[in-house]
Amino acid sequence: MKSLAPLLATAGLVAASLPLLSATQAAAAPAADYRPQQPSWHRCSPEQPASYECASIKVPLDYQQPHGRTIDLAISRIRSQDPAKRHGVMLLNPGGPGGPGLDLPLMMDAEMPKEVRDRYDLIGFDPRGVGASSPVSCGLTDTEQNFDRPYRPETFPSDVAWARTIADKCREKAGSVLPHITTRNTARDMDAIRAALGERKLSYLGYSYGTYLGAVYTQMFPSRTDRVVLDSGVDPGLLWRGLLQSWASEAEPAFARWTRWTAERDGEYRLGATPEAVSATFWGLVARADREPIDFQGLKLTGDDIRSTRALFFYPQQAAPLVSALKAAAEGAPQPPGLTVPDLKKVLQRTSVPATDNVIAVFWSVMCGDTDSWPRDPGQYARDAARDKARYPLYGDFASNIKPCAFWQRPTEAATPMKTRADVLTVQNEWDSQTPLASGQGLHRSLKGSRMVLAQSGEGHGVYLADPNSCANAPVNSYLATGRLPARDVTCGATPGPVQRRDALPAPAPLPFPAGPQRF
After folding, report:
1. Cα separation values, 147 from 84, 106, 129, Å
2. What is the 3-state secondary structure (H, E, C) of 198-265?
3. What per-residue confidence (pLDDT) applies to 361?
4. Strand (E) positions, 314-462?
5. CA–CA distance, 173 with 310 (Å, rounded to integer)
6. How many Cα atoms sit within 13 Å of 153 on the Cβ side?
7. Which of these, 148, 367, 151, 365, lies nearest to 241 by C-alpha position?
8. Most Cβ neighbours (<10 Å): which of 313, 367, 489, 496?
9. What is the DSSP letter of 382?
10. DSSP secondary-structure letter at 380?
11. CB neighbour list of residue 448: distance below 8 Å, 6 or more residues apart
């Protein structure tokens, strides 16, 4: 085993810090001097409807210097077809961080009920640094883009080297831009879009990471906030390492639920007649794959590969067939007949390679640039990962292992405190692998004045319009159509049986199964 001493000795070799502004100081910064130009709209594409229009506006790279360097912000719209019912504009965000959103008006135009759709011009945008909005890159290789890294003492030095390499490459290739790719600056961009459209207020629908972005907007621009729906919530108190770690802690009750569900169907899956037996079968497969990889669907799976499918256990009807098929493969037996087995290449994201590293470059910019709470000592990550591997055996070490933020340039602003009342609607499935229930509840608690719609027993990341039968759709539609929040929090029962989720939901949502284990 290589000594950690050289790695620990150089842990402090991070780029020089920029001055850290408090949220109060930053809110009072001279961004008010900036006035966006009116967009020049044009048809987005001959292949798309003429009603789907695109444009771009210039916004400051650094809002502390509003007349300095600018970047392009790509926006899109589909206007309301009923001026008499039109209430205003609704900005849309799919999550990420790093998720493009230009095409969201097309998706929502097709899915929203008429009583909601008529009231808004639907506005999409690629957030700063993403897609068509002055995209950034760190020049990362395919391997470097994967951060699902299990902790083992013998491989931890290479994990530290990986994290340092990501930070170094990002700093070298885009160091003048990445410090400004943050949630607070994207919220400022949202307000620039509002101003460019000539609107007094902004309504908003955000999924996943987009819930935190929307929450930050409500705090920075409360007087300009209109009707806001935050779907699949990010707890502001977990930024950002804590949210990754919640993937581990909240996978454990999901796994326990899966063992109960599967034990009740032992005649179909043959994994054990009790929850304890099902669990023993699973961990036996993990141990077997650690000794000798299992050949399955053209992959050679290690125990770590199997554990990294943690998101799948939020969906018992998909996890049980997969584990049953893995058991057969490990035993050299024929695949069980009649089972629909997920494509593990999709679950592990091994079917295609991103054309660029744009998404992951923005991901790390936001993860590391939003908060200064990341440990700077690699040894802290090693200790935490070892502890959490024992505490949360399915995914604990993955979640707590070292990340590039250990070596990232320190943020230019403090995180946004959630102190201002926000009369918004939060929406949550009970069984969400990416923003677990505890995270959604944390967002709701943070936003005083908010209401929560909880789809009890609901599965999936993304609720509103993701499942056409979700009980959450009706209260969301009512709020968006009338502006009236429910009098109290709403808990409704999810529709029993297989969830018929729409593929039209924004891409970061795992449809029809969790295909995006590294996204919010």
Report:
1. 50, 32, 20
2. CCCCEEEEEECHHHHHHHHHHHHCHHHEEEEEEECCCCHHHCCHHHHHHHHHCHHHHHHHHHHHHHCC
3. 97
4. 425-431, 451-459
5. 34
6. 6
7. 367
8. 313
9. H
10. H
11. 418, 421, 422
Give the pair of three-digit tokens for residue 166. 């990501």
Residues known to be catalytic: 208, 432, 461
For residues 71 and 61, give the distance between their C-alpha atoms in angstroms, rounded to a whole number. 6
Low-confidence spans in the chain with pLDDT less than 70: 1-33, 351-355, 495-519
SS3 17: coil
Q: SS3 for 170?
A: helix
Query: What pLDDT, on a 0 to 100 scale, did the predictor assign at position 506?
Result: 37
Distance CA 114, CA 265 (A): 42
**Torsion, Cα of 417, 231, 398, 373 (10° steps):** -10
Query: In sequence order, what are the residues at sequence separation of 6 or more whose Cβ sits closer than 8 angstroms to the Cβ of residue 332?
Result: none
214 touches 230 (CB < 8 A)? yes
Instruction: DSSP for 112-137, please give it.
Output: S-HHHHTTEEEEEEPPTTSTTSS---
Burial of 152-177, coded b for 16+ CB within 10 Å and e otherwise, reads: beeebbebbebbbbbbbbbbebbeeb
Max CA distance (Å), the chain: 72
Residues in the chain: 520
Orientation angle between helical segments 241-249 and 251-263, nearest 10 degrees: 20
pTM, 2 dp: 0.91
Helix, strand or coil, per DSSP, at residue 73? strand
CB 229 within 8 A of CB 93: no
Using the structure block, give the residue that is written with the tokens 């729906």.
229
Strand, helix or coil at 428?
Answer: strand
Q: Round to whole Å and give the CA distance between 221 and 202.
A: 10
Distance CA 46, CA 44 (A): 7
CA 134/CA 117 separation, integer angstroms: 30
Task: Confirm if 319 and 312 have CB atoms less than 8 A apart.
Answer: yes
**Contacts of 114 by beta carbon, 8 Å cutoff, 6+ apart:** none
